[in-house]
Specification:
This protein is of the alpha+beta class. The protein has eight helices and 14 strands. A hairpin with a 2-residue loop joins strand 5 and strand 6. Helix 1 packs across helix 3, helix 2 crosses helix 3 and helix 5 runs antiparallel to helix 6. The radius of gyration is 20 Å and the shape is globular. Bound molecules: ligand DP6. Ligand DP6 binds next to helix 4.
């Protein structure tokens, strides 16, 4: 497939006004996307668990304009209030998606959005937010083309979400999503994410993710800037190659349910992501002292408890504590007794693998 396959030729019906709501989850990468080319093409393939609780709910109300406007016409409400600082990101998204959604300037949109997680918790809302918005716009396109098949609908929603934020393309479905061309993954693509197509052992089916909110302040360095620093990065090529290899290794690990090998890859990916930040020019550090305290506690507990608790990180100081469901009680006890003390205001979110976005 090429991006041209997502340009509609004609619309068979008309729609003057309507309203649609989607709830779309966040996701946590196991093999990280860090580095991209033009047009939101990833420098390496990535894979993520779709989350369940951390989600954005977006309602798009649309009304056809008398004449097609020269610019996008929309207003944005976040948690019920106008939010000017989110508008540039939405404008960029609309600009990038217009070639594939040629009706965008023919409507006025009211976009109302809210998150299930606390605002400025340090949890990236771009994955859930951009995927929810992409799905709402696809729903309007489906009104204009009612014969659209549901696989195409989801694939194009993922394609559009990617143009808003790369990781967002992995939030459309669950429970394990892969994005980026990879020689050992059938039908994988740089243009959209696919549901992981191979056998997955039941132990991974209801994996738990407790997100420890270590630092809720806003990020000093945005992901976009971080991705850019992978151009001319001294270790870029080795890193991209490592991601491909880790995905290949994961195939057998997922099939066999080999938790010890799973942990090695996931923790190494998290630390490599931050190592890339620390070795770019300019260099930067997003982890905090409490991030390291938590990592060390996890390692000690894992060694002494016979559990398979592990961690991963996103582009911030928060720690995602990962563990299989059948170890929930033991690990949860450990988290409350030993890790919550390192969270800002004791805050954390108990999440788990989810099934993807839902129309409400
Ligand atoms: C560290 O998807 O936020 O979470 O495409 O610029 O919007 P943009 O970047 P974004 O980057 C996410 C990076 C990451 C790793 C991952 O989710 O794979």
């Amino acid at each position: 497939m090429t991006d041209k396959d997502f340009i509609p030729s004609t619309y068979t019906t008309d729609k003057t006004e309507g309203k649609v709501t989607y709830k779309s989850p966040s996701n946590i990468a196991l093999v990280k996307y860090w580095g991209k080319k033009e047009h939101q093409i990833p420098a390496n393939p990535s894979i993520s668990f779709t989350l369940d609780i951390c989600a954005t709910t977006t309602t798009v109300s649309y009304k056809k304009l008398k004449n097609k406007a020269s610019d996008f016409s929309f207003e944005l409400l976040f948690e019920g209030k106008p939010k000017e600082d989110f508008k540039p990101k939405i404008s960029t998204f609309l600009k990038r998606t217009e070639p594939y959604l040629p009706f965008l300037k023919a409507y006025h949109f009211t976009i109302e959005t809210s998150n299930s997680f606390p605002h400025s918790s340090g949890i990236a809302s771009s994955a859930s937010g951009m995927s929810a918005l992409a799905l709402c716009l696809m729903e309007l396109e489906r009104e204009l083309n009612p014969n659209m098949d549901s696989d195409f609908f989801k694939r194009k929603a993922s394609f559009l979400a990617r143009l808003g934020s790369g990781s967002a393309c992995r939030s459309i479905k669950g429970d394990l999503m892969q994005w980026g061309a990879h020689k050992d993954t059938l039908n994988s693509s740089d243009l959209f994410a696919i549901k992981y197509p191979y056998k997955v052992h039941p132990v991974f089916k209801n994996y738990q993710d407790t997100i420890l909110l270590v630092d809720k302040g806003s990020k000093q360095v945005s992901s976009s800037l971080g991705h850019n620093l992978m151009h001319d990065h001294p270790f870029a090529e080795q890193r991209f190659d490592q991601a491909h290899k880790n995905l290949t290794k994961l195939k057998r690990i997922f099939e066999e349910g080999n938790l010890l090998e799973f942990i090695k890859i996931v923790e190494s990916e998290a630390l490599t992501l931050h190592a890339m930040m620390m070795t770019s020019m300019p260099y930067f550090i997003l982890i905090k002292p409490n991030t390291l305290e938590i990592i060390n506690k996890i390692w000690d507990f894992r060694a002494s408890s016979n559990t398979h608790v592990s961690f991963t990180l996103d582009a911030g100081a928060n720690v995602h504590v990962l563990y299989p469901e059948n170890e929930k009680e033991k690990v949860y006890q450990f988290i409350s007794n030993e890790l919550v003390a390192y969270c800002e205001n004791g805050q954390y979110i108990c999440d788990q693998i989810g099934k993807g976005a839902k129309k409400l």
